[in-house]
Amino acid sequence: MDMDKNRMQEFEEARNAWMERHLRARRGERKDRLKRGHGHGEALFLKNVWWPLVGNFDDLHPEYEVRDWRGGTLYLDFAWLPGLRRFNIDVKGFGPHVQQADRTGYRRELMRELYLHSRGYTNISIAYDALKEDPALIRDFLKPDIMRYARAGRRAERPLAEQALLDYARKHSECIYPSKAADELGLDPRTVIKYLKKLMLEGKVQLISAGKRARRYRYVPELGERG
Question: Is residue 205 packed enough to be buried (19+ CB in 10 Å), middle (13-18) or exposed (0-12)?
């Protein structure tokens, strides 16, 4: 599916704005990882598969950080979080994932996917060569689920700052500190407090400690998110 000039310009503008928003929301290694990790394969997926199917980047997070079972960090090429569903989308080249892999790397790769599955993620692995040579077939395979959950996951409009805070709360779950959230999201602490109070009224978060030094909140998962 070749995009015409206007559609291509629309895609580039939307993608640049989406990437800039995620870069502004990150600090340190998380920001560097996004700059390093979002390469040609990921860009090709967005252009040839995601954008033709969905037409926006709602709920799609590049180089998404997940804590693993050892306390380390996993980075997903893309996490798509429509509503209560979680998808891990990986673009895999033959070299790093097969040709250059040893037994340890192979085991680590499968354990990673098994762990993500245990955390409620649906794993979608896409071969870079197939993405380059036959993106239309990939779109056909993904279309039923993508379109179903893209429609189901559309949320009531929230201000960008509030939605960013809700996504942050979902990700950090039990350890939501207003000052830390403000720093990581690039928001004024008063804005974070305001939206945390609103999310409390909606039942999305709970205040679990209010010591002299810091308040701590926890995210309240909805029924479908509880494992």
Answer: buried
User: Any idea which residue has 């974070």 for tokens?
Assistant: 192
Query: Is the predicted pLDDT of residue 227 greater than 50, yes or no?
Result: no
In 10 A of CB 9, how many CB atoms?
11
| CATH 1.10.10.10 residue spans of the chain | 160-219
What are the tens digits of pLDDT across the range 138-154? 999 999 888 888 765 55
Fold of the 160-219 domain: Arc Repressor Mutant, subunit A (1.10.10)
Least Cα distance to 128 among 16, 59, 43 occurs for 43
Q: What angle do CA 18, 21, 26 make, to 5 degrees?
A: 130
Model pLDDT, residue 102: 73
Instruction: pLDDT band for 223, please (50, 70, 90 cuts).
Output: very low
Rounded CA-CA distance 175/82 in Å is 22
CA 47 to CA 140: how far, in whole Å?
A: 15
**Among 84, 31, 93, 96, residue whose Cα is nearest residue 62:** 31
d(CA 59, CA 50): 12
**Residues 121, 115: contact at Cβ < 8 Å?**
no
Q: Which two tokens stand for residue 129?
A: 């060569």
Residues 65, 78, 199, 117: what is their CA dihedral angle, to the nearest 10 degrees?
A: -80
